[in-house]
């Protein structure tokens, strides 16, 4: 899985000419406002179905236009090719189009309309490392849940549908809690559905956390980090699992009715990161938090790589956030994992800092006024 070709139409300032990329490293350089982040943002649309920079689709549609499109050709990867009895697996064609006025999204895979974004996301696992990524450590539990669930989605095929069902049941349960008068009969029916889904979701998350912990700790052993002793990463499922969720919900009925929403369950899960018993957000320096996030992202890439899935990493504006040593470590590890990487830089990097010597399929593009020129 790697993006081999990209073509856009009416996407920010991008000219829209088709561009071919390397399945390993791609470096995009150009001055401020040239369109580097927009290229990464367009790639992100194919794997995430949204912008990683802004929540409104409208912002990425070229000013004055009402519809934008992103097309991509994706290499199905080593595994798929190997499975096809010695044959070469076919390239997948992904398409995302959004009509801003009608607020309609059209998704296509290999020439067919598809209803769910997961059909695209599965074919192009995209992971973003940009200045906002450090919120995984400094932000609240929802940031870490999102981080964790990205892996669970790519590892456990049933997860997307389980999570969707759980969201639906949670929202109906919350409505009943907010109803004003206690409808115990109806609440018990929601509780039963909710806790059955909660157990399945938690099991899927736990099995992926086990893989993730293993990859993360083997990285920690490789890279000498002074905080290894005293660091702890624990998965909190959203309630004390020594007790069935049904019991926990029954015991906290009064509290939930007062608050008007669900307080226990997988929607409250967290990946707790502690140093000497205290949250790392309170104890780690900014630099240590950055190292931790980078290692977590690499470990996530390794979990998928071990399953034969190549991750496409979008490294946007990282020069401002990471020093040269961290950047080199990140590049080296992602290369070892055979990930596909897109990295932006304002200045043309010094030849000795490029990886041309060690990475055979390295490509560099100069971005000017939304147009990419390969060098
Ligand atoms: N909806 C839009 N329609 C047309 N142009 C847009 C739209 N949104 C942004 N732009 C322009 O597109 C250009 C590309 O912005 P982008 O953020 O991709 O640049 P960049 O090369 O990453 O810059 P920087 O180095 O400052 O991060 C900017 O000049 C911006 O003004």
UniProtKB/TrEMBL annotation:
ATP binds at residues 30-37. Gene3D superfamilies: P-loop containing nucleotide triphosphate hydrolases (3.40.50.300), RecF/RecN/SMC, N-terminal domain (1.20.1050.90). GO terms for molecular function: ATP binding; single-stranded DNA binding. InterPro entries: DNA-binding_RecF, DNA-binding_RecF_CS, P-loop_NTPase, RecF/RecN/SMC_N, RecF_2. Residues 4-350 form the RecF/RecN/SMC N-terminal domain. GO terms for biological process: DNA replication; DNA synthesis involved in DNA repair; double-strand break repair; SOS response. Its main location: cytoplasm. Pfam families: SMC_N (PF02463). The keyword Acyltransferase does not apply. It is found in: Cytoplasm. Keywords: ATP-binding, Cytoplasm, DNA damage, DNA repair, DNA replication, DNA-binding, Nucleotide-binding, SOS response. One of its GO terms (cellular component) is cytoplasm. HAMAP family: RecF (MF_00365). The RecF protein is involved in DNA metabolism; it is required for DNA replication and normal SOS inducibility. RecF binds preferentially to single-stranded, linear DNA. It also seems to bind ATP. Belongs to the RecF family. This is DNA replication and repair protein RecF. It comes from Marinobacter zhejiangensis.
